[in-house]
């Protein structure tokens, strides 16, 4: 029997399929599609962009499908699609949301509200509560997101919130990788929302320069990585090379991260994709989601508050600590944990959709 799935997300291309853009968004959109095609091999997928104000006609269209998957990124964020009907990236009112009659699966999304951004409005709480109540499976990609979203919904719905790691972490298994790893260190330092991410940008740059100088003194190649708008720091610090992953294919993204040793990342997918590819990751935390993800994997020793006055020295110390670790064993344990989580969640989803 052909299963008709509608995949709702924020990164849908102009022709209705998945678009290329921010490297993390490119990867997560493709990874979600891969999950659905792999787990439901006889399915037909239609894509719909969530960043619009939904009307009754949209609900009528959605209800012609067998299942709705809401996926593809940190959708609980208001500034990327400001609206008064939901206050997050899916512009649907609670009233219209309640009219969806097909099963809804919310798959590994994130709570991405940044420090010093305005609080969500009461309509957000009503919207999310309606979505959780209607969903047959509702999951978020780290425990911090799970716990935070619970503060916006009634306690009776808390048990419906599940941890479900981002599918980008297992996506490497579906891509052809043919590279040899080197000792380079990549720097992926987000260029968006700098005033939200950093209380003292000058101090942050000074500390990154200190760590970069240390690597240079050891003869280690440094690479500035661009997912989108991430070359800003090159005005202050000179790196050996720049790698542009904006609007690149998933194959190029995963092959690149499979070729380097360590990534200094303060983007969410700047952690997830490199870890998936076997890289070591150090994170200056400019958003709590960075700490939440590493906490879930019991890697809390590999992040530092980006405001720490000794950030540069701490990055050096933590980078040196990798020498005493069997990273291959750590990596395989992480992948087993994530695969186990994936399998358990997918079994639940299939029971709900295929009964």
Can you tell me about this structure?
The chain is an alpha/beta fold. It folds into 2 domains: 3-170 and 337-353, Rossmann fold (3-Layer(aba) Sandwich); 175-324, Rossmann fold. The chain is 37% helix and 17% strand. It has helices at residues 23-39, 56-62, 94-97, 122-134, 143-149, 194-197, 201-217, 250-257, 268-276, 288-296, 311-321, 327-353, and strands spanning 3-9, 43-49, 67-71, 104-109, 135-140, 161-163, 185-188, 222-226, 241-244, 262-265, 280-285, 303-305. Strands 2-1-3-4-5-6 form a 6-stranded parallel sheet. The longest helix has 27 residues, at 327-353. The chain is globular. It starts with a strand and ends with a helix.
Count of discrete structural domains: 2
Structural class: alpha/beta
In total, how many beta strands? 12
On the 0-100 scale, what is the average pLDDT?
94
Q: What's the N-to-C terminus distance?
A: 13 Å
Question: Per the principal axes of the C-alpha atoms, what is the gross shape?
Answer: globular
CATH topology of the largest domain: Rossmann fold
Write a brief structural summary.
The chain is an alpha/beta fold. Helices cover 37% and strands 17% of the residues. The chain is globular and about 60 Å long.
């Amino acid at each position: 029997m052909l299963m008709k799935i509608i995949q709702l997300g924020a990164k849908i291309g102009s022709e209705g399929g998945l678009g290329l853009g921010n490297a993390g968004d490119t990867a997560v959109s493709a990874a979600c599609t891969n999950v659905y095609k792999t787990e439901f091999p006889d399915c037909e997928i239609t894509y719909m962009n969530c960043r619009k104000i939904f009307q009754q006609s949209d609900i009528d269209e959605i209800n012609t499908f067998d299942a709705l998957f809401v996926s593809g990124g940190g959708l609980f964020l208001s500034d990327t699609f400001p609206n008064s009907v939901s206050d997050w990236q899916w512009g649907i009112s609670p009233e219209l949301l309640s009219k969806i009659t097909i099963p809804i699966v919310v798959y590994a999304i994130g709570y991405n509200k940044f420090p010093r951004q305005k609080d969500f409005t009461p309509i957000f709480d009503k919207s999310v509560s309606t979505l959780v109540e209607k969903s047959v499976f509702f999951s978020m990609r780290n425990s911090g997101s799970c716990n935070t979203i619970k503060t916006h919904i009634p306690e009776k719905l808390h048990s419906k919130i599940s941890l479900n790691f981002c599918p980008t972490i297992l996506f490497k298994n579906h891509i052809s990788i043919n590279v040899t790893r080197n000792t380079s260190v990549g720097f992926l330092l987000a260029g968006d929302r700098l005033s939200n991410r950093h209380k003292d940008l000058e101090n942050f740059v000074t500390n990154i320069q200190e760590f970069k100088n240390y690597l240079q003194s050891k003869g280690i190649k440094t690479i500035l990585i661009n997912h989108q708008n991430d070359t800003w720091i090159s005005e202050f610090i000179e790196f050996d090379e720049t790698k542009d992953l904006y609007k690149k294919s998933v194959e190029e993204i995963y092959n690149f991260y499979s070729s380097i040793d360590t990534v200094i990342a303060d983007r969410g997918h700047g952690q997830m994709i490199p870890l998936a590819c076997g890289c070591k990751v150090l994170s200056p935390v400019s958003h709590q989601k960075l700490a939440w993800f590493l906490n879930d994997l019991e890697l809390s020793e590999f992040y530092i508050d980006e405001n720490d006055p000794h950030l540069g020295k701490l990055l050096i110390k933590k980078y040196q600590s990798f020498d005493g670790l069997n990273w291959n064993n750590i990596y395989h344990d992480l992948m087993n944990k994530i695969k186990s989580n994936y399998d358990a969640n997918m079994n639940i989803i299939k029971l709900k959709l295929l009964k």
